[in-house]
Every structure is written in C-alpha cells, then in structure tokens.
Amino acid sequence: MRRGLHLAAAAAITFSFTGFAGAEDLATVSDLDLMEQTREAVGAQDADLVLDLLTEMQRRGTGIFVGAEKAVCEEVIDLPDGITDWRFKGAVRQAYITSAKKQQLASEACGCLFTDYPFDAFTTEQLGKSPADLTNADRSALETYLAAEQREVETRFRAHEKSCRAK
Predict the structure, then answer these.
(1) From CA 21, how far away is CA 118, in angstroms rounded?
(2) 81-115 confidence digits (pLDDT tens)
(3) In angstroms, rounded to a whole number, what is the distance separating the alpha carbons of residues 152 and 104?
(4) What pTM value is reported for the model?
(5) Handedness of CA 76, 70, 116, 148 (dihedral sign)
C-alpha cells in the first residue's frame, strides 16, 4: 500500500512538472530548472515536451549543448612568415571578421561566421591575392577597408545577431 502511494505521488509530481514547463514560457526558466524539467520530461516519456526543452537548451547553449558551436567557430588566419609588422595581425583579423559579418548579413544566415568564408576567400576578395602573397604593405589596404566598413557593418550585425538568437 505504501509503495503504491509513493508511486502515485511521484506520478503526480512528474505530471505537474511537465505541465508547468509546458505552460510556462521557457525563456523565463533558469538553466538549472530547464535541465531538471528536461530530466522529468524524459522520465515521463513526453516526447513533445522533451523536444521543446532540448530546443531551448540548444538555443541557450546549456546542458548537453554547452560550447557546441564555440569549439567549431574560430577564424583561421594563416599569415606568411614575411609579415613583420606587429600591427598587421590585428588589422587583418578585424578586416576578416568585418568582411565575414558583411557576408553573413548579405546571406541572412545565422551561425559561424567562418564556416562558408575561409581566410583565403577573404584575401582574394579584398586584396586580390592569396594569403601566401600577403606583405606588410597590405596593412594600409586593410585599414582603409576597416575605416570604410567596420562601423556600419557592426551596427547592422548586432541587429542581425539579435534576430538569430530569437529564432
């Protein structure tokens, strides 16, 4: 009898948790509560709720999704050994990121800036040469590009990032 009472209480708690998560706006739930509700929904075998909860965890980058995109999304900038100007690396990195943001704005895509836009595509497009052919003298062209594009692209990109997070 006692075991039956415990099972009934556990089932009632489980269903109240899953009902609570379904009724509440998931964006307002803390990360810890979100993970706990996901465990409860899995235990209750509520596939629809589990999908909603896991989708929210993925959107936030929490739980099993921690760092999933960050590890993959890094710019890879291969400069030739002949670059001795210590300011070159910063200028080329900023110009590459700005250009990648501009590409993403044009395609209205979300996700990693560099997935479909490798460094050699950037140097070919902006400087008309491969990364192996870069010289210290290319820094001025990079700085000119940044002066013309960076502020406007950054402003537009912030709005784009916000819309990507909302999806």
Answers:
(1) 42
(2) 989 998 999 999 999 999 999 999 999 988 888 88
(3) 14
(4) 0.58
(5) negative
In angstroms, the CA 151 to CA 41 distance is 46
The string of pLDDT tens digits covering residues 9-57 is 444 444 444 444 443 577 777 877 878 888 898 899 988 887 788 888 7
Contacts of 76 (CB under 8 A, 6+ apart): 114, 118, 119
d(CA 88, CA 83): 7
**21 contacts 29 by C-beta, under 8 angstroms:** yes
Identity of residue 162: K
* Cα(33)–Cα(16) distance, integer angstroms: 14
**Backbone φ/ψ region at 120: left (φ over 0), alpha (ψ -120 to 50), beta:** alpha
Q: Give the C-alpha distances (Å, rounded to integers) separating 145 from 55, 83, 126, 153.
A: 39, 19, 8, 11
Residues 73, 109: contact at Cβ < 8 Å?
no
Q: In angstroms, rounded to a whole number, what is the distance separating the alpha carbons of residues 12 and 29?
A: 21
Cα angle 153, 159, 160; round to 5:
80
